[in-house]
Amino acid sequence: MTAQDPATRSSRNSFLTIAQLVISLGGAFVSILAAAFLLIADRFTQTQPGIDRTGLGQINQLVVMLLLLAFAGIPSIVLCIRWLRGIEPGEAKSNRWLLVASFLLIVWLGALYGGALLLNNGQSSPFLLVVDLFLIALPLIWLLGLALHRIKAGSWKRFWGLVAGTFYITLPIILIVESIILITAILAASALPGFQDFFNQLSALATSSTESLDQMLNELAPVLASPQAMYTLIFGFGLLIPLVEEFLKPLMLWLFSRRHLTPSQGFAMGLISGAAFALVESLFALNAAGGEDYYAIVLGRTGTGLLHTFTTGMMGWALASTWHDGHGLRLGLIYSGVVILHGIWNSFAIVMGFGSLPFQLPGTVSDLAEAAPWILGLMAVWMLTILYVMNRRLAQEDQPTQPTLV
């Protein structure tokens, strides 16, 4: 890091740095506050007789997860304070990320086995969350190393600012919007015939023991296997959620809309934002995973991490390119494309999930469930290929133009 004359710094830079510092401090504080609240609530339930503690066994993991979110704000806080004191942060170079992450993939396989072993032995401990963090973060680091190789990704202050902004601003906003959509959908569905019976069955399923899970699923089979249920899930997860998430995931980039970002900078910032979003989403998904489906969920979340990183990277590239040349059609096409891609991914993931349930599916759905892993795998290969191509193209654009010799 190097010192820089404060007079050369624009008020815009100072405003963004102060805003980043406030967001990081506020997000870390709220995360710690939420962790303390969960601990107090957990201790209270332990002292109250007759309270059903089913489902509360993962409270310690949630507390550790919130503390990790708070800890993630520390690099941003430190770098902002140093910048305000006149110390310029270094450039976030990813040249060695891919090599180190590739080497650690061997360790990743061992951690995958260890995580499943801990769950199967009933040891849902905070240590398991550390294993989950490694399992989710390493593929994301590998992806960033691949996609950002030789691309100017900006400073470390910007990198950690995007991570903190995604954790503390983007994720809560997406959660609030999706919750509003879910509540609206439930209220609308409550007017349909038979909704109350279906809701009561789902409530019983949510509180049932593992031993009665198969029996409850068999009782719900006619409802879950109905076209209405499938179409509703696909409409929600295949259209509404992609529309919301792909619109909001690059939210932090809008703070830089007047900073004359290059397309490669927008691409890099989108990748970082998407990877940060995928990290937290996947940790919450793994926190709710059971031992039997642990392998499938880890592999599935690895693929979903690729999806979120890819789509937000493309949106970042489209936003920066549009701010650069004013061609809004490109942005509209990219947004439509990533929403469709996200929707197809979610739809096949839902169909594949139906295929694992203990009841007979209609012929077409059953065929799609069998083909879903192959289709999702092909989509993952396609996204990796596009990331590599985009990296080669943008890295070449970042190279300084050589003067023509005459």
Characteristics of this structure?
two-stranded antiparallel sheet; globular; mainly alpha; about 400 residues; disordered C terminus
Q: Can you describe this structure?
A:
This protein is an all-alpha fold and 406 residues long. It has one domain. 76% of the residues lie in helices and 1% in strands. It has 13 helices and 2 strands, in the order βαααβαααααααααα. Strands 1-2 form a two-stranded antiparallel ribbon. The longest helix has 37 residues, at 11-47. It is globular and about 65 Å long. 31% of the residues are buried. Residues 209-213 and 402-406 have low confidence and may be disordered.
Write a concise synopsis of the structure shown:
The protein is mainly α and 406 residues long. The protein has helices at residues 11-47, 59-72, 74-84, 97-120, 126-148, 156-189, 195-206, 213-224, 227-248, 263-287, 294-325, 328-355, 363-398; strands at 2-3, 87-88.
